[in-house]
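Team,

Forwarding the record for the chain on the shared tracking sheet. I've put the sequence and predicted structure together so nobody has to dig through attachments.
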Amino acid sequence: MQRLRTRLAGALLSALALTLTGCGGSAGPAPAAATGTNGSDGTDRVEPLASPGKPRLPVTVRSFGGPRTTVEKADRIVPLSGSLSEIVFTLGLGDRVVARDITATFDQARKLPVVTRNHDVSAESVLSLRPDLVLAESTTGPDEAMQQIRDAGVPVLVVAPARGLADVGPRISAVADALGVPAAGKRLAQRSQDRIAAVRKAIPPHADHPRVAFLYLRGSASVYLIGGRGSGATSLLEAAGAVDAGAESGLDKDFTAITTEALVRAAPDAILVMSKGLASVGGTDGLVKIPGVAQTPAGDRRRVVSVEDGVLLNYGPRTDQVLRSLVRQLYGDAR
């Protein structure tokens, strides 16, 4: 769907290439704006720092897996993923962002022009906006487009992929350092970590450890995948006191096509989905019609947890909200 978040998309592209015809390149249908389905907890807005400070530039920073990049100015910023846009806006520098990826669906960014869809970058669109700095994920592409941007003399910072909760602070710091506001980055990283810790502390002590399967669904393209080890959901589920049913059942690939056998083996007590994906199959009624779902404890009890597409696996400043929604939907409001 995007590369919906860094790790998800790379794995998803491979899975789609194997399961679909004519759906490559952009990894299937792009996510629509968040619908707030089933408890998104108002995650359609970011909460900027009150006083980020003025960027102190130039700075020289190292891209993930690449050379050092010198940033002379950051007046016109183009983040090429929703996650990176979220970080820039939450640092309080959203007024400097001039474009977005289609997955940047939060309110403050929604009116910006789209220059990349599912991390399929339009170099011409990016360059037409005269950016001072482009922020990219390690799987942003195609490579030719990224090289075209670099050849035009635009600094490109590549940020390490988001794989789990441990990446929240480092990703915020990487972006903040490149924008010349390292102190704001430290404050935002600490705020994010403190809020995640508060949610974890509030998990009902009597809660069980439900087995939760992460399903990636795109009904319009007949894409039905179950997440395994490396899907990106494991860290979030474990933080909520749950078990990643796909990974625990032995699914070593990031994503695997759903089969009745795989679902029965995973035996999830609950199913985690993106809200747009759930809508694409006709809601819970349609979900339980997917072969194998009704045969699981989750399908039998119609126990479905949904979080909006544009934030679920970002592992950024709003991850505490995602975790809170997940905990509430799994355990209710009991304390």
